[in-house]
């Protein structure tokens, strides 16, 4: 019989030993009493080989997921930025819509007076409180000295007209070209008439003087156009009386009238011409 | 000893086989192309191809039985196949010195047969019902293609390991001779 060398004997021994050990392990699996030994062997096999390899695999998966999450994060960040800009656009549209709705409501109440809708197309920061340019001109029927109103009330007078645009002098201009005839409705049903002739930038109020200084005017009374003089109807809201100051001679008093609340920021206006609106 | 280096390489290759199977599991629905790693088998064959026939069979059998018990649950498939292919790998060892491409071809064919023979056996006994063409296309095509590249890589790696182990052995022998000389 062929003789085996030392290496071959060792190899045969190892193979037989492992085969017997393996068969014993498989056989032990059937024996309930030896489950603990088999479980220990299975645990060792799991701990030495499967668990480390599974951990490495999970680590690789996690790193791959991190890349996906990075991409998702970039996408969501961009979406969020776009959402913010959408929100800004939405807020802008909503505010414009509200302004237009209020103007429409006011327009429905004005009756038969000349009404020309327009949009502010220019308002320079250097003359913010003095002038605006609107998108209606002589072609649409705008004439000089017509009154310009927002949803809150009167804000200016048409000073100059072009074919499709007009220049409006705001009532907050310190040098008003034309005085505005106004009236204050009293509690007893009578009216006190006067003129708004200028604007006080320190008090942020119109200066109004009454034709009849004996009339008792108090804060909170509403001031509207009287319809006398100028090319605009009566009853257009100008502002609210803030205070009454007696002059030194106590004969003439100056009434300060708070302008409408949105005189510093409006986008849509109605140009009103002569016609009976309200008393 | 160089065999220690080879043993470590085989252990690492077996771990790599298990890890690759975990990360890229074969698709047994045969919808996608699958890759079945046999890196440990290739390392074993490359380590033993130049040895005597009985050595090749015994080393292949030992490697196979260890692979079956520790890295798979397919005893005695790997035990028998590793032993058989261990014998066949060294049949042309005189020709490998003239042209190493022959070893490359033999190993590629053995990788193919390592999967195909068990499949055909199962097909004959009736436990496998998938079409041969489908199985070859979805399981073997990618496996053989990737192992062709792996064989190239392993040839280089094992040469480097061999050279490193040989240098280490020489250094150890030199140290031993020096210590004997000093003792005298």
TrEMBL record, chain A:
The chain crosses the membrane at residues 12-28. GO terms for biological process: regulation of cell shape. Keywords: Cell shape, Coiled coil, Membrane, Transmembrane, Transmembrane helix. The keyword Transmembrane helix applies. One of its GO terms (cellular component) is plasma membrane. It holds the Pfam family MreC. Involved in formation and maintenance of cell shape. Belongs to the MreC family. This is Cell shape-determining protein MreC. It comes from Catenisphaera adipataccumulans. The lineage of its organism: Bacteria, Bacillati, Bacillota, Erysipelotrichia, Erysipelotrichales.
From TrEMBL, chain B:
Keywords: Cell membrane, Cell shape, Membrane, Transmembrane, Transmembrane helix. The chain crosses the membrane at residues 5-24, 30-50, 57-82, 102-122, 134-158. GO terms for biological process: regulation of cell shape. Belongs to the MreD family. It comes from the Bacteria. This is Rod shape-determining protein MreD. One of its GO terms (cellular component) is plasma membrane. InterPro entries: Cell_shape_determining_MreD. It is a multi-pass membrane protein. It is found in: Cell membrane.
């Amino acid at each position: 019989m062929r003789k085996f060398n030392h290496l071959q004997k060792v190899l045969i021994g190892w193979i037989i030993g492992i085969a017997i050990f393996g068969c014993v392990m498989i056989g032990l699996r059937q024996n309930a009493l030896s489950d603990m030994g088999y479980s220990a062997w299975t645990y060792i096999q799991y701990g030495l080989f499967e668990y480390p390899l599974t951990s490495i695999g999970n680590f690789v998966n996690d790193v791959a997921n991190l890349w996906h999450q990075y991409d998702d994060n970039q996408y969501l960040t961009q979406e969020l930025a776009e959402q913010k800009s959408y929100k800004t656009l939405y807020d802008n549209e909503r505010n414009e819509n509200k302004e237009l709705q209020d103007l429409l409501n006011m327009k429905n109440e004005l009756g038969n007076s000349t009404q020309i809708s327009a949009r502010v197309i220019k308002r320079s920061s250097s003359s913010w409180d003095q002038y605006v340019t609107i998108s209606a001109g002589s072609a649409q029927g705008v004439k000089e000295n017509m009154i310009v109103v927002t949803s809150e009330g009167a804000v200016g007078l048409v000073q100059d007209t072009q074919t499709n645009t007009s220049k409006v002098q705001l009532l907050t201009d310190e040098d008003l070209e034309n005085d505005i005839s106004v009236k204050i409705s009293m509690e007893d049903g009578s009216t006190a008439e006067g003129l708004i002739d200028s604007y006080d930038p320190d008090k942020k109020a119109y200066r109004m003087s009454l034709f009849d200084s004996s009339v008792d005017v108090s804060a909170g009374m509403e001031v509207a156009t009287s319809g006398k003089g100028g090319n605009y109807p009566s009853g257009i809201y100008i502002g609210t009386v803030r205070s009454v100051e007696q002059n030194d001679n106590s004969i003439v008093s100056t009434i300060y009238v708070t302008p409408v609340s949105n005189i510093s920021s409006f986008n849509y206006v109605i140009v009103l011409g002569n016609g009976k609106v309200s008393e | 000893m160089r065999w220690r280096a080879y043993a470590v390489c085989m252990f690492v290759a077996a771990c790599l086989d298990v890890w690759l199977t975990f990360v890229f599991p074969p698709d047994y629905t045969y919808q996608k192309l699958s890759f079945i790693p046999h890196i440990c088998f290739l390392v074993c064959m490359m380590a033993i191809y130049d040895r005597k026939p009985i050595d090749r069979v015994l080393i292949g059998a030992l490697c196979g039985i260890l692979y079956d018990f520790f890295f798979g649950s397919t005893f005695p498939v790997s035990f028998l196949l590793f032993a058989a292919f261990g014998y066949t790998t060294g049949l042309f060892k005189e020709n490998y010195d003239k042209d190493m491409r022959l070893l490359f071809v033999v190993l590629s064919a053995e990788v193919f047969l390592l999967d195909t023979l068990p499949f055909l056996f199962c097909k004959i006994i009736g436990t496998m019902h998938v079409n041969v063409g489908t199985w070859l296309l979805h399981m073997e095509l990618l496996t053989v293609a990737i192992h062709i590249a792996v064989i190239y890589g392993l040839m280089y790696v094992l040469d480097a390991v061999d050279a490193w182990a040989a240098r280490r052995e020489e250094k150890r022998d030199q140290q031993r001779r020096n210590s004997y000389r000093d003792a005298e």
